[in-house]
Design brief:
370 residues, alpha/beta, Glucose Oxidase, domain 1, Rossmann fold, 10-stranded mixed β-sheet, 7-stranded mixed beta barrel, 19 strands, 23% helix
């Protein structure tokens, strides 16, 4: 079936439909990862966005039961150059097209994704619409331009859990079931702003009992769990659109050791009276170089964010710990007084390299030392 992608600047791409039928509007971004499309599709941080894969051949390993990073896909749309309808993998359970259709995700393939990526790189991320129902440029352009920008939405409440729960499963082991939590000596309270499952698994791997709390949970309720440490997860959208989260985190600073990833990092920046700003086209991929400033080592990292913390706005409170080598944006910070640190990138990967997994062990050491 014919499908059309129209951007807010008037660029239009005609291709073929994959996934569900209908119309979806969202912010169009690109992801440079060559593998891991299932993890990308199920990353809640993509809520409100249409994701374009720069790698041209997508779907060849199908979809399995183990690699989802959340309970379902939350992204708005999916764009690929060439969809593979005949997957081959020993773990495959269904094909990508059926998976997208099952979860009502509209997609498009057989378009020039290099041209689309070049558009975003040169002029920035922008709204777009995928439609299988209407292909008239003027009509589609009017719809997408009338749609609010992503900053207007509280996307966190759409992806967060609805009630607290305990997570006890560790990372997957080759040819054996995953490890499970064996000890209650370390208790971690994890705020779910759109948490990826592999983050929770790695927290279990450091010996933690992990209790996950909805994003709107008051700080007092989190502290009543008597956690040894508090984790702030990744998530979608503009951090400034969730003032209730910022205030809750502000009320926790100095009361327990805190570790934040991605949106959690940005929330900490705002809770410390700092500022955030929107990047031109964001960082989305599994190959971003980041320098660790204390050792000068370079980590290859997995990233997925459209906003960043302005270092100058928090310089009186924190020291920079990591810097992005592509554009010099702040990738990590450590508080000068309190046991608190955060990173903008994704040390849990999924997909991506494992260079930064040491940060979970650092969190455990920080809790022990405090």
């Amino acid at each position: 079936m014919k499908a059309t992608l129209c951007l807010a600047d008037g660029a239009i791409f005609h291709g073929e439909s994959i996934g569900a039928q209908g119309e979806r509007i969202g912010e169009v971004v690109f992801n440079t990862a060559m593998t891991g499309y299932q993890e990308i599709i199920t990353d809640p941080s993509y809520r409100g966005q249409i994701v374009t894969m720069t790698y041209p051949h997508i779907g060849n390993t199908g979809v399995n039961l183990e690699d989802n990073e959340s309970r379902r896909p939350f992204l708005t749309g999916f764009v690929v150059r060439e969809y593979c309808p005949h997957p081959s993998n020993w773990r495959v359970r269904t094909d990508l097209n059926s998976f997208l259709r099952q979860h009502d995700v509209v997609g498009i393939h057989r378009i020039d994704t290099r041209k689309l990526t070049r558009n975003i790189r040169e002029t920035g991320a922008k709204k777009g619409i995928i439609s299988t129902e209407d292909h008239d440029k003027d009509i589609l352009l009017a719809k997408v331009r009338a749609y609010p920008d992503i900053e207007a939405f509280d996307l966190v409440k759409e992806v967060s859990c609805s009630a607290p729960y305990d997570w006890t499963e560790g990372t997957w082991q080759w040819n054996s079931p995953p490890k499970t939590h064996q000890s209650t000596t370390l208790r971690i309270a994890a705020y779910d702003f759109g948490a990826k499952i592999n983050i929770l698994r790695l927290l279990v791997d450091i010996g933690a009992l992990v209790r996950v709390f909805p994003a709107s949970t008051p700080a007092e309720e989190v502290l009543s769990f008597d956690p040894d440490g508090i984790f702030l997860s990744n998530g979608p959208g503009d951090p400034a659109s969730v003032p209730y989260v910022i205030q809750n985190v502000r009320n926790l600073i100095g009361k327990r050791p805190i570790f934040g990833i991605c949106l959690g990092h940005q929330i900490l920046g705002l809770a410390l009276q700092g500022k955030t700003y929107k990047l031109v086209f964001g960082h989305h991929g599994a190959n971003h170089p980041v320098q660790r400033l204390d050792t000068r080592q370079v980590e290859i990292t997995s990233q997925n964010h459209n906003f960043a913390v302005e270092l100058e706005s928090v310089a009186s409170e924190v020291d920079a710990s990591h810097i992005n080598l592509n554009d010099q944006t702040l990738e990590g910070m450590v508080h000068k007084k309190y046991p608190l640190f955060s990173v903008q990138y994704h040390p849990e990967a999924s997909p991506g390299p494992h260079d930064s997994r040491y940060l979970f062990r650092r969190f455990a050491r920080m809790i022990e030392e405090s």
